[in-house]
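Exercise (ungraded).
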Amino acid sequence: MIVFASTLPEHSNDGYVAAAYIVFFALILIYVTIMSIRLGRVERKVRELSAQEREHPEGTRKEREVV
Amino acid sequence: MRSPSLRALSISTVAAFCVALSLVFFYAPIEAEEGFLQKIFYLHVPLAIVTLSGFVIGGLMAIAHLRTRDQRWDLRSYVVIHMSLILGVAVLVTGSIWARASWGHWWVWNEPTLVSFLIVFLLYATYQPLRFAIEDPERQARYASVFAITAGAFVPLNFIAVRLSASFVHPRVLGSSSNLPGPMMLTFLVSLGAMALLFATLCSYELAAKRTRILLKARSRILGFQ
């Protein structure tokens, strides 16, 4: 790969190319971060729900019967 | 949520991007007219193709929803359009960066390709407000599907209209007049494949997250915790 690196030029437009790629990867990174925060929230809710289910098994059973 | 198929998809996306970036910067030759700046097109054009395809796919999924009344199709259509909108932002930004470097302007209003993409983007930007303005879930899904089909049909028509228009200031990567040399075409196709994989991965994660939230909500209701 380094052998082929000779195709990299010394060019005045390097900054624009770098900016385009950085913007793209930054956007994806921001999106993935938001996704992981939301996923963390869902996981917390699952834990809360499981804990509540363990604490009130009777209430849960009654609700199931009603449904 | 973290299924083996999702993990495999994520790993193949990362691998595809590594290969694509290596080809872009170490293999593809420098274009004679644009110079190094042309490297933006290996990002910008696949992004635009995947985004516009996403809008059309969203419309096709909406058709499947209206035909079958299966809510899963509506969810898929929503996720695909949502993801296309996010990638659409990247298309506009990378395109503007290229325009600034090449034309000296961030935006050119008399360029049909740019303006038509902006129109499509703004059209789809109204999808979510329209969707969430309706409270009844069934009506929401139905109206959103009608919107997705109408807008999805507009995308190829818009594309054809732009292609038929007289001005060809915007460079063409693919088409009858384009003769990309082999290494450039290979790099472009690998970049396109990597972008398509990224789109599929992000859509899969978003779908899995949405399904989990729906299941969680339903379970909370059943257990009487909400």
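Further reading is listed at the end of the chapter. For now, observe: The interface with chain B takes residues 1, 4-5, 7-9, 11, 13-14, 16-17, 19-21, 23-24, 27-28, 31, 35, 38-39, 42, 45-46, 49, 52-53, 59-60, 62-64, 67 of chain A (CB under 8 Å). Chain A has one domain: 15-66.
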